[in-house]
Amino acid sequence: MTDAHTAGPFIAAIDQGTTSSRCIVFDRDGRIVAVDQKEHEQIFPKPSWVEHDASEIWTNVQEVVASAVEKAGITAEDVKAIGITNQRETTLLWDKHTGEPVHNALVWQDTRTDALCRELGRNVGQDRFRRETGLPLASYFAGPKARWLLDNVEGLRERADRGDILFGTMDSWVIWNLTGGPDGGVHVTDVTNASRTMLMNLHTLEWDEKICESIGVPMSMLPEIRSSSEVYGTATVGALAGVPVASALGDQQAALFGQTCFAEGEAKSTYGTGTFLLMNTGEKAVNSYNGLLTTVGYRIGDQKAVYALEGSIAVTGSLVQWMRDQMGIIKSAAEIETLASSVEDNGGAYFVPAFSGLFAPYWRDDARGVIAGLTRYVTKAHLARAVLEATAWQTREIVDAMSKDSGVELAAVKVDGGMTSNNLLMQTIADFVDAPVVRPMVAETTCLGAAYAAGLAVGFWPDTDALRANWRRAAEWTPRMDADKRDREYKNWLKAVERTMGWIEEEN
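Below the sequence we write its predicted structure tokens.
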């Protein structure tokens, strides 16, 4: 299958995502040579609880790696490095002697740590650990999830105190298993994933002993924090045995890297299950006063870490899935565009999908979804349009917050992710944000970012300038909306957002 222009060598990237795991093989031009993907089960034990079976995920990772290598018609010898990118914050504890997970992984969307987070914030509130970690106390982050498992799985805290238990986000789980598991597996994470635990000090880039103690997570469980681009170890199992494992980046940081946002003020927005907008803020961690997260963007080898501001939206692609699976209003995700295009506007309806609370810039766990402005006039086509507008308005709220925090006006938004195939949505975002929206040739920027970081670590690419030269524009949308109309609609949107808050009352 490999022809002349895809003569090796190659880089393989493993993307362990929220709904599926995949492996992509890239050539030196950053072009896709082969890809394989496999979905895993979403487990919902209670409303707003979400879990994954980590053993199923590891099995799937091995399968997609083997299959991508086979489709590319290559062998491990042709692959110079493996990069890893992963769904962030999803939290797993496992037995280091057997490699058995002690419980299903708690997924980033899971809100069972609500009460714990309130308790941790007692006198100080959400900002208790913000100065050190860049994060508000919210059920989203990994540290409190680990504490929940220690408190709720029979006998687990004793096992952890004995030193038998390892903690990790999915990057750590995949790397540990790839490099031998119970038999010499390397227990590491990178700065980007560590910055999402609420246990790492952003300024020292090390685990913060005081915070670990306050949250109740023993440091003996924690992986070693490394840069995002260096050789952690060598794969010992599967189709790529013998290949160095040379990068790890949380999926959103990987997309920032894959979109080659290496300069201060460059930003990307990834439209997947949720949506994540990251802006490079250079070598300084910018504190947010507008509800954004301060996070590590990436760190290449022993260079200085590069920081980012991040705005996260919990529900975007998953709202389209909800319209398809729970409401039956559309039969496929692509249909939403056709349906929404059949009307001129939203018919006065606004849909705020606060299914698991509101993320940036509000951080309100007590919010739940609403559709506001309903009249007899509203049809399912208007609702479809309101669904797309929800993603665009939430993007606008985050862009506004970023400009306020960083003092940098966004010149353009580089976009990626599954929803970017929806042209109506892309135009709506350009209209609402009042800036050009640009989509690159390779939409798989998350995998590409992991591949780029791994390639840099082994000298496959010389430097970030070489990566920039690979970036090509596929499409661009420019704003065409009247400013008065934009302001009027935005005001209505913000009114609808207000209606979501305080729905869940605190139970003492």
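The longest helix spans residues 380-406.
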